[in-house]
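Regression check, phosphoenolpyruvate case 355:
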Amino acid sequence: MELESILLPGISNQKPLLIAGPCSAESEEQVMNTAKELVNKNIRIFRAGIWKPRTKPGGFEGVGTIGLPWLEKVKRETGMYIATEVATRNHVLEAVHSGIDLLWIGARTSANPFAVQELADALAEVGFTGPVLVKNPVNPDLELWIGTIERLHNAGIRKIGAIHRGFSSYDKKLYRNLPQWHIPIELKRRIPNLPIIVDPSHIGGKRELIAPLSQQAMDMNYEGLMIESHCSPDNALSDKEQQVTPDVLSYIVNLLVIRDTKQSTENLAELRQQIDMIDDDLMSILAKRMRVSREIGLYKKEHNMPVLQTIRYDEILEKRIAQAKELDISLSFMKMVLEAIHEESIRQQINILNQ
Ligand code: PEP
Ligand code: MN
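Current build output:
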């Protein structure tokens, strides 16, 4: 995909590209206080939600248009670039009119092709030349994420980046939105020149998860971080559990270990060769296992036996999980692999049964 750099003039290309600011613009005072503290910590791109897509009505839905002059003031008085979320054509017109430098499309919007098309058309109509960042859709659907990026690209937008903010799930556990890292990894494989920015605030949903998630993002070599920061997080009108003060934000950023990607890869090459050979073995062993499983399928068919025999599967699982413990492999990982293999075996045996 033909893309241009999302770096705004004067922004260093050293990782990570940082975007920080409150979840929502709440008042001129809150916006200005936060921005001044952030610029003192060398943050150059200020984010703030003006229009807030909330799950239920009745909550704080953003201050709306009256907040735009506050962002303009941030730009004027601190020299920071300003960024906000747009979800409708009107938002685009108003944001661009106020000199917004960078726009992002939120997770609820990027899941909706009608809304995305409207935004893409509006951006083309006003000739927006700044970067547009696309948050992943709330549901773990890579094609939908790529679809949103393609709609922007088709509208002539070239400064496109992606924001990984995690995926919602029914049962909330450690994370507010599951990271499902394999999805952004696959996105990078599909569009290698697309910069990816990680939003640890919305993935974690808690202050204490921002540092480890940010480090993980850097270890995976992603380009940047978007972090929610508020001058008084406990009083925030939205997402207060996940916002940190500019002081804490700066502390977190300074502790990040940025690994040097320019290091020689000679030693790595040898290890990678080993991995390739092991993967070859894994492939042929899996193929062999499937062959045997199909033979069992034939036998079951001839003897009119059911495909699924739960006791046998339970035995296999129990035995292998005990083994995983000894071999120091993660139990949950081993269980996932075994379940995937078992599922595929069953699928193949059912095919045989129906032949
Ligand atoms: C936000 O960035 O404040 C926001 C609403 O995020 P998301 O679209 O990822 O939920
Ligand atoms: Mn938020």
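Comparison notes: Residues 23, 228, 238-239 surround manganese (II) ion (ligand 2) (CB under 6 Å). The chain has two domains: 17-255, 268-353. No diff flagged against the previous build.
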